[in-house]
Design goal:
Elements: E1 2-7, E2 11-12, E3 19-25, E4 31-34, E5 47-53, E6 63-67, E7 81-84, E8 91-97, E9 106-109
Parallel strand pairs: 1-3, 2-4, 3-5, 4-6
Antiparallel strand pairs: 5-8, 6-7, 8-9
Length: about 110
């Protein structure tokens, strides 16, 4: 099933295995969303749609930081992914999959 959530504080995605739309409100401050660690409980193909939002009529330079779990990667990088909301309402879709021809799972930007 596909879940939707709206967060106004830092958030760690659970490892329930559900595909999710996560809206992170960065109106008041920059926020960090931490991805679940790879594990056998996560299914290959799991999708996360992550969207940075602000309150209507508000301008902000706050960012949404998407952090892989310790030792994990996003597109092969252990660095955080940053969505700058100066352009308003940016989003990224991540999928848990194989990117390097091995059997190892990684978060992949799609």
């Amino acid at each position: 099933s596909f879940l939707t959530s709206y967060k106004t504080a830092d958030y760690t995605v659970d490892s329930s295995g559900h595909d999710m739309l996560i809206q992170m409100d960065v109106t008041a401050a920059s926020r960090t969303l931490t991805l679940p660690a790879y594990s056998s409980s996560l299914n290959a193909g799991r999708k996360l749609i992550i969207k940075s939002v602000i309150s209507s009529g508000t301008s902000t330079s706050n960012r949404l930081i998407i952090a892989p779990a310790s030792g994990d990667t996003i597109d092969g990088s252990t660095s955080n992914l940053s969505l700058d909301d100066s352009a308003c309402f940016q989003s990224v879709t991540l999928m848990l999959g194989v990117i390097d021809g091995s059997d190892d799972l990684h978060w992949v930007i799609v």
